[in-house]
Design a protein that fits this description.
This protein is 43% helix and 10% strand. The chain is of the alpha/beta class and 301 residues long. It has one domain: P-loop containing nucleotide triphosphate hydrolases (Rossmann fold, 3-Layer(aba) Sandwich). The radius of gyration is 19 Å and the shape is globular.
Length: 301
């Protein structure tokens, strides 16, 4: 057993699921079986899937083969917002490499809201929630006393991509941090993917197909959605143990989610609300420009 070599730490709705799936399919990469194990996010106990490192390794990396796998990886969306995850990872593996993906914060937040709508059947629009119903959405700092799921209502904090990058750069050595801009990833996924492989020290697998992953979805049935979100942790872990025992790697067993999903087009924000959010997140965009050394003025329109 050993600590993973690299981590896709976020940000949410910035292409992380697609990148993780591409990496998981690379024969030289041993990637976590579990989608987002959150093992190093001790301040997110509701999301952390495993109680100790032995369970984390067994349920995620027991198929590791030193003869074929060059690197071990984990992708978890709480790592970039956790106050302890990056430090925990570096304590376990000082040479760990980190991949952080960013996008226009307004688009990211709109996409996250659609993700929440699919996950729990939330009927309200982002504008309605922002203005009236969920004051926690506009919180900037994560509060330890919040219940686990309340963290994911903190849209403002989740989309503070420049602030999170600034915090990570304080503790991650420059040569161990790679930042990917979503626009670049969408425009040329192959080039981005090859750069990631070089960054983590993995040979190219000559991949040419980069299908779209994690498209906008809606629930077919609200009741099925509630049943899925109410699934107890013991049952989830039992399924993960089954996958370990029978040798399944990256096969989703969540049939409820698949049956209950239908693809949709994400509805656009009203122009007035969009401009309000553009102004709200302008400082975050400026921070990203400073740290990345590139012009992101298109994100201010």
């Amino acid at each position: 057993m050993r600590t993973p070599d690299f981590f896709v730490v976020g940000a949410s709705k910035c292409g992380t699921t697609a990148l993780c799936e591409y990496l998981a399919a690379n024969p030289s990469v041993c990637f976590a079986r579990t989608k987002e194990p959150h093992f190093y996010s001790d301040d997110f106990p509701g999301q952390k899937a495993d109680e100790d490192f032995a369970a984390y390794w067994r349920r995620n990396f027991s198929f590791f083969d030193p003869a074929s796998h060059v690197a071990i990886g984990d992708g978890s969306g709480t790592y970039y917002i956790s106050s302890v995850a990056v430090s925990n990872i570096l304590a376990a593996n000082p040479a760990a490499r980190f991949i952080y993906m960013v996008r226009d914060p307004v688009d990211m937040m709109a996409s996250w809201h659609q993700h929440v709508q699919f996950g729990i059947g939330e009927p309200a629009t982002l504008e309605e929630l922002w203005e009236t119903r969920k004051p926690v959405i506009r919180e900037i700092d994560f509060r330890s006393e919040l219940k686990a799921r309340e963290h994911f209502w903190q849209y403002r904090a989740l989309a503070s991509l420049g602030t999170r990058l600034e915090e990570m750069k304080k503790i991650i050595p420059a040569e161990q941090l790679m930042v990917i801009v979503f626009d670049d990833f969408i425009r040329d996924p192959k080039t981005t993917y090859e750069k990631v492989l070089a960054f983590i020290g993995v040979p190219s697998d000559a991949r040419t197909a980069f299908p779209q992953v994690n498209q906008a979805r809606a629930q077919r049935s609200y009741m099925l959605g509630r049943l899925n979100t109410a699934m107890p942790r013991w049952l989830i872990n039992a399924v993960r143990e089954f996958k370990h025992l029978v040798g399944l790697t990256h096969v989703s067993m969540n049939i409820l989610v698949k049956l209950n999903a239908k693809k949709i087009e994400r509805p656009p924000l009203t122009e007035a609300f969009r401009q309000k959010l553009v102004a709200e997140f302008a400082p975050e965009v400026s921070l990203l420009e400073t740290h990345l050394g590139r012009d992101l003025s298109a994100w201010r329109r």
